[in-house]
Amino acid sequence: MILIHGTTRRRAEQIIDLGPDPRYREPGGQGLDDGFSMYLESGPFHFGMPDEYARGKAREFPDEGGAVILVVEVPDEVVQRSATEWFPLSQGLVQFDPGAGLEELAAVWPEVARTAQIRSVT
């Protein structure tokens, strides 16, 4: 499945290189163990459009290279592991949490990263 993640260029490059970090801490923020979320490319986008989220992050962190969308193709079975009662795929949000797809995503990330794309947001 094609998944997308709105972010900044620096963060997108870091995610491609190192894989998603569920404990990522924004500058000045607190480290959390919140998993890692993406959207199905086709949506729906009940929690906001990824490009708008990316623009917000770029405004908040102007030294991180601007707004981008990280695009990755994740095996269907890995995406299906993320689906829970709280985060069904029908809502468009794919939430990778410990015990719900995060470990599987980490295992396939080296292959996923090879074809990842970064799309600039205007």
Describe the structure in your own words:
With 122 residues, this protein is α+β, with helices and mostly antiparallel strands. It is built from four helices and five strands; from the N terminus they run βαβαβαβαβ. The protein has helices at 9-18, 50-60, 76-82, 102-114; strands at residues 2-8, 36-40, 67-73, 93-96, 117-120. The radius of gyration is 13 Å and the shape is globular. The mean pLDDT is 92.
Question: How far do the termini sit from each other?
Answer: 25 Å
Rough outline: globular
Number of strands: 5
In the residues, how many domains can be counted? 1
Count the DSSP helices: 4
What order do the helices and strands follow?
Answer: EHEHEHEHE
Q: State the share of residues found in helices, binned by percent.
A: 25-40%
Topology of this protein?
Blueprint: E1 2-8, H1 9-18, E2 36-40, H2 50-60, E3 67-73, H3 76-82, E4 93-96, H4 102-114, E5 117-120
Antiparallel strand pairs: 1-2, 1-3, 2-4, 3-5
What's this entry about, in short?
This protein is α+β, with helices and mostly antiparallel strands.
Descriptors for this entry?
122 residues; alpha+beta; 34% helix
